[in-house]
Structures are given as structure tokens and as C-alpha cells.
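re: that chain from earlier
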Amino acid sequence: MGLSRRLEEIEQDAGHVSMPCNFVLVRRIVATEREYMAFVSSTRLRVRSWRYLFGFTVHSLRSSLQARRVDGCYAVLLLREDRNTFWTCTVWRDDKAMRTFMTAGAHMRAMPKLLEWCDEASVVHWLQENIEAPSWDEIHRRMQVDGRRSKVNHPSEAHLAYQLPPPRVKRTSQLRFK
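^ sequence. v structure.
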């Protein structure tokens, strides 16, 4: 059940119409919603030159192994495409668990390097009702609708125009770490 629907039910139960929000009430509703919702984080990165590919691959694998061990991580997926393009998807208990991962260890060491290594980078986050990893088609749709560009030092024309071709998924191009 969505948060807005839950708010409507509580308002009906209380027998009143819309009025300014009670933040304590909203916090309780959000906490209740989070009990069965998962936080999804996805990135799309294009490595701008083959000379950065080895370092990128090493950091990606280390970051994926790190994510797999973090409490609150439900899924870790990587997708490799042509033209040095990579997609990631992680599913978390909440955004706090994801931020704990993001600001520590291998991932924290990798993030500054992406400014120089990548010429395209984008990220998207959303909540979903289950802990299953979404399809790559859903990730692409979300990236187009709700995603944003990440900063890179050498942006491509596609990055500047926010052009995101759909991922081409092959059986051998995916890795699932959890």
C-alpha cells in the first residue's frame, strides 16, 4: 500500500479532512511503510577509455563484494554492455544502509576516481514494495524518468543530453553477487 493511500485511510479513520500534517504521525506512517519497502539504488557508468577499464573493474568487484557483506543489503547486480558501459543495481533495507555502504571502504575509495574515468554517469533511487531486484528494463525506465546525471570531468554529448539507451542484456553479461 502506498504512503498516500495510507494517509487517506488514517484521515478517514480520524474522521477529519485534510489539514496541515502532523509530523509525528507522518514519521510513524513512514516507519510502518519502511517495514515492508525496499530502497533501490542503480547507476549507469560509461568508462571513457580502455586504459581506465582495469582499475574500474577491480574497484567495481571490490565494491560489489563490500555491498554483499553490508547489513541491510538484499541484492547486488552488475551488467556489462558494449562500449565500456556498466549498470549496477543494489536493493537495500533502507537508504541508511545504502549510505553506510556508499561512504565506507572500497566504494568510498572508488567514487572520486569515476570523475576522471567516466564520461557518462547517472544514478536513480526509489522505493519498492518487495526486496527482489528489479528488471533491467524497469531500471532503465526509472533512470529515464527519475534519474539524474552524476558529475564527470569529461562529459560526452550523450551525458550532456541525458541520452540513455536501454541496456542490452545477455546471459553472459550479468553478475549477481547476492
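Residues 38-176 form a domain with the Alpha-Beta Plaits fold (CATH 3.30.70.100).
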